[in-house]
Amino acid sequence: MSEASVEVRVEWSVLPPQVDAVGGVLHALLSATRGEPGCRTCTLATDMGTLVTLRLREVWDSEDALRQHLRSPRFEALASLLESAITQPRVEFVLPTGTRGFEYARGVRDAIEGTR
Question: Span of the secretion signal (predicted)?
């Protein structure tokens, strides 16, 4: 990660029967996210075991680009999926000021809701 870039990291363990459904949704969202302005890269890795661990990683040019993404319908769909998970995914936003959890995304989205 370069000095100006920021990252989103999600680690989510699901049962093997859930992999196709969850992975399919994540792949579709990532394909669209790759085309967003400021998105440098977007990847999804899978580790198979008793539980299947999905690791999502997005790298953005800047925190401003990330904030725009967090306000998008695509991120809203991802957030809904994560919030409905039976096992809570680990979500990290790696920013110049430090690493934050999912509350960072909620704060960005709530700030927009408050201005409407």
Answer: none
